[in-house]
Every structure is written in C-alpha cells, then in structure tokens.
C-alpha cells in the first residue's frame, strides 16, 4: 500500500483542545516541533487522522494546516488563516 509524508501544523488556543489534538496526532506521527507533526501514512491512516483532527478545531480561534507531500501536493486548512488560492513551490 502506498504511503506518503504528511506535515501537520496547528495553533490551538484552548489548552484542553490542544492536548486532545496532540494525543490524536501522536497516534499517527512524530512531533518535530512544538506545534508540528510529521507522519508517513497510507490512505486509510490519513483519512482517519483527518476525520479526527479536523473535528477538534474551533474555526473562529484555531488553525490546522495539513500538507500532503506526494507526487501531487495538496494543502488543507481549517480555522484562522485559511489558505487562499496561490501557487505553492516545494523544493
């Protein structure tokens, strides 16, 4: 089964919500910075992580950004600072 790299970056205001999100993300990947996780996931794992993590975000106060690094780059965001249409260059 094909796997791809996923980078998750978040900014969550509420401590309880942030702790729940961290526990969720720890099931799928490794914390690489205070608010960033990397994971090597197959499609089933990715879908499960996305379902769980996106439900925890308060769209008025929080931000969740998910970068899928594969042959085609997809970027998903929730909450403050939602991504506008723009070019993305990955080196």
TrEMBL record:
GO MF annotation: an example: RNA endonuclease activity
Name the UniProt record assigns to this protein: CRISPR-associated endoribonuclease Cas2
SUPFAM superfamilies: TTP0101/SSO1404-like
Superkingdom classification of source: Bacteria
Enzyme's top EC category: hydrolase
InterPro entries given in the database record: CRISPR_associated_Cas2, Virulence_VapD/CRISPR_Cas2
PANTHER family referenced in this protein's UniProt entry, alphabetically: CRISPR-ASSOCIATED ENDORIBONUCLEASE CAS2, CRISPR-ASSOCIATED ENDORIBONUCLEASE CAS2 3
Residues involved in Mg(2+) binding: 11
Keywords: Antiviral defense, Endonuclease, Hydrolase, Magnesium, Metal-binding, Nuclease
Family: Belongs to the CRISPR-associated endoribonuclease Cas2 protein family.
EC number, as in UniProt: 3.1.-.-
Function: CRISPR (clustered regularly interspaced short palindromic repeat), is an adaptive immune system that provides protection against mobile genetic elements (viruses, transposable elements and conjugative plasmids). CRISPR clusters contain sequences complementary to antecedent mobile elements and target invading nucleic acids. CRISPR clusters are transcribed and processed into CRISPR RNA (crRNA). Functions as a ssRNA-specific endoribonuclease. Involved in the integration of spacer DNA into the CRISPR cassette.
GO biological process per UniProt: defense response to virus; maintenance of CRISPR repeat elements
Stored HAMAP family: Cas2
Pfam family, one: CRISPR_Cas2
Organism: Veillonella dispar ATCC 17748
Quaternary structure annotation from Swiss-Prot or TrEMBL: Homodimer, forms a heterotetramer with a Cas1 homodimer.
This protein's record includes keyword Nuclease: yes
Cofactor(s) it depends on: Mg(2+)
